[in-house]
Amino acid sequence: MTTSVSGLDQAQTESTWGPALYRRALAIWPRLDARALRRCGYDPRRVAALVSRRTSMPIETIMVLLTGPRVSRVEAATWFG
Q1: Which residues of 1-37 are buried (b: 16+ CB within 10 A; e: fewer)?
Q2: Do the Cβ atoms of 75 and 30 come closer than 8 Å?
């Protein structure tokens, strides 16, 4: 599966996610190949495609997990005690 991203979209994606996308993906799926993850170029769709090869979850679900709202420690403590 190949996805193409225009220069403007890629620049917007990089500024929006950057390394946080990698940290989130590795936190959820710690056995991901970091080298293959770097080749995804901060593109959540490409990261989801990489992860989908290693799990039975659909790409749409993986995208929601990767791009969902960020939760602070205070919010997590409030929600989960």
Answers
A1: eeeebeeeeeeebeeebeeebbebbeeebeebeeeeb
A2: no
Longest Cα separation, the chain: 43
Which residues are CB-neighbours of 46 under 8 A, at least 6 positions away?
A: 3, 40
What 3-state DSSP class applies to 76?
Answer: helix
pLDDT in tens, 11-40: 444 456 678 889 999 999 999 998 999 899
CA distances from 3 to 30, 45, 47, 74 (A): 24, 8, 11, 37
Better-scored residue on pLDDT, 60 or 77: 60
Helix (H, G, I), strand (E, B) or coil at 48: helix
Which run of H or of E encompasses 9? helix 7-16
